[in-house]
Amino acid sequence: MCTCSYSRFENVQDMNSSGNLSWDVFCRVVDNYGDAAVSWRLARQLAVEYGFNVRLWVDSLRTLHALRPEVDSSANLQIVDGVRIQHWQTDADFQLDDGMEVADIAVDAFGGGLPPGYVAAMARRQPAPLWIILEYLSAESWVSSHHGLASPHPSLPIQRYFFFPGYGSSAGGLLCEAGLATRRDVFQRDAGLRSQFWRDIGFELPLPDATVISLFGYESVAVAKFLGIWSHGGGHIVVAVPESRLRPQVLAFLGEKSACNGDTFRRGNLEVRFVPFLSQDRYDHLLWACDWNFVRGEDSFVRAQWAARPLVWHIYPQEGHAHWPKLDAFLDRYCSGLDSAVIRAFHAIWHAWNGSQDMSLAVADWDFLQKNQQVLRTHALNWARITAAPGDLTANLVQFCKSKVK
Ligand code: TRH
């Protein structure tokens, strides 16, 4: 799993010998939570684990507050976890406060762009700072030939590079805090910790024979179909549904008009628990407490991989089904080493959940995967280890920038 914290202190000593780099992370929230989620994790890790001076410029404090409740959604400036969080309103009125300098490295999260006023200030600074475009995560093969590529600014003397999250040694890795695997393993081995987690969010620890599933996704016709499979299937299924865009489909399946956090509904072998939207750190505990995690977008998708439990990814839908190659590229990489029958059923469930598969097949596929639960869990743990081996995204980004900073 992620490199241990000791090796990072070596980097920091090394880094400090070349000066303590300063970072500006710019986050425009397009929609949902992922933009803020990724930007916050990166900023916090740079500050907490490397001791860097980090400013996070974010336009939606409300979104960040949902992920990290300690963030004040009304403050223009605050410091949380060592990160200086600046509310970034519009480009037009963006300006650095008196005495503020541009940072050594500006991270442009998901290519949202930097404010023109900031770019102009970058160009005036000698040596010019680095502009890093942090791209979206993909398992597709083309990433390795694009990762780390220079993208010179068309008119200004600014070094700009693409940095791609991804898998293997020719991509940037995935965000992963130091010690995450250890905390996960302690939690998953300790029924007392799991019991406390469920009680903290208003529920009892599910019975040992139950299959526990977390359900976080976008609107999907597949929700009712899967709930139907689970309510009529063999074995007790507990589904935890945090506040998200798929709750209306769950309510429609239950025939309920509304539900409050803490409510439980039962239909056949299915128990549905409505859980609150948790802080990012607590959401990890939900993922670690489940046997299956249905996740979406980018950051919850990564967290489910680190949870080392079987997962189903609801990919962010794109025009013209452009997202399918991205989904299948991950599936092909992830399923390597599994038995062909398991691979077929796993693909079928993923495609059904993402709305492309004949749902009538999914019942047999789900039952088959349930019979192979232990194989899938071992595989998921191995996947987490393989994925972590090339180092985490922040460690790789720090090393990349250290090699480019003049
Ligand atoms: O919210 P998302 O759909 O964000 C998406 C993706 O980032 C996508 O790449 C991007 O293009 C689009 O936004 C604009 O999914 P994601 O990335 O999983 O982010 C959700 C975050 O919310 C993640 O950090 C997990 C967190 N979360 C909690 O903190 N508590 C919760 O209770 C739940 C359900 C999620």
What does it look like?
The N terminus is likely disordered. The chain is globular. It has 2 domains: 178 residues, Rossmann fold; 209 residues, 3-Layer(aba) Sandwich (Rossmann fold), CATH 3.40.50. Helix 8 crosses helix 9. A hairpin with a 2-residue loop joins strand 10 and strand 11. 42% of the residues lie in helices and 16% in strands. It starts with a helix and ends with a helix. The chain has 16 helices and 13 strands. The protein is α/β, with parallel strands linked by helices. The structure holds 2'-deoxy-thymidine-beta-L-rhamnose (TRH). 2'-deoxy-thymidine-beta-L-rhamnose binds next to helix 2, helix 10 and helix 11.
What ligand molecules are bound, each kind once? 2'-deoxy-thymidine-beta-L-rhamnose
Give the amount of beta strand, in percent.
15-25%
What are the segments in which pLDDT stays under 50 over at least 5 consecutive residues?
Answer: 1-18
- Enumerate how many helices there are, as a single number: 16
The gross shape turns out to be globular
- Average pLDDT confidence is 92
- The N- and C-terminal alpha carbons lie at a distance of 32 Å
User: Which H/E pattern describes the elements?
Assistant: HEHEHEEEHEHEHHEHEHEEHEHEHHHHH
Structure class? alpha/beta
CATH architectural name of the largest domain: 3-Layer(aba) Sandwich
Q: In what order do the strands lie side by side in the largest sheet?
A: 3-4-2-1-5-6-7
Helix % is: 40-55%
Gyration radius, to the nearest Å? 22 Å
Q: Mind telling me the CATH superfamily name of the largest domain?
A: Glycogen Phosphorylase B
CATH T-level topology of the largest domain: Rossmann fold
